[in-house]
Amino acid sequence: MQEINMMNEPVVHTTRDQDEKAQKQSPQFTKEQFLRSARYSGAEKDVLSVILQEDETYRLEQIEEQFTQFIMREVQ
């Protein structure tokens, strides 16, 4: 029997291998590409310039997670 979520759409269960494969296939971008993107405001780009490394590539999901963690952290 297929599960149905609140939106009456089928719930798709994936395995860890499928999740890892999907992550490897999702596009990755450099810090510079994110900073040139029209997706983010000036203030958001300031945060990205601090939290991203020059020599790394990132998936959009990673950036969203790191950005949220940075914004939500407790100020000391």
Question: What distinguishing features does this structure have?
Answer:
mainly alpha, two-stranded antiparallel ribbon, 8% strand, 2 strands, 4 helices, single chain
In words, what does this structure look like?
51% of the residues lie in helices and 8% in strands. With 76 residues, the chain is mainly alpha-helical. A two-stranded antiparallel sheet has the order 1-2. Helix 3 (42-51) packs across helix 4. The longest helix is centred in the last third of the chain and has 13 residues, at 60-72. The chain is globular, with a radius of gyration of 17 Å. The chain starts with 15 loop residues before the first helix and ends with a helix. The model has no long low-confidence stretch (mean pLDDT 82).
Count of discrete alpha- or pi-helical segments spanning 4 or more residues: 4
| First and last CA, distance | 51 Å
Low-confidence stretches: none
- The count of strands amounts to 2
- Report strand %: 5-15%
Helix content: 40-55%
- Cα Rg: 17 Å
Characterize the biggest β-sheet: 2 strands, antiparallel
H and E string:
HEHHEH
- Mean pLDDT figure: 82
Strand order of the largest sheet: 1-2
Structural class: mainly alpha
General shape? globular
Topology summary:
Elements (H helix, E strand, L loop, with lengths): L15 H10 L2 E3 H6 L5 H10 L5 E3 H13 L4
Antiparallel strand pairs: 1-2
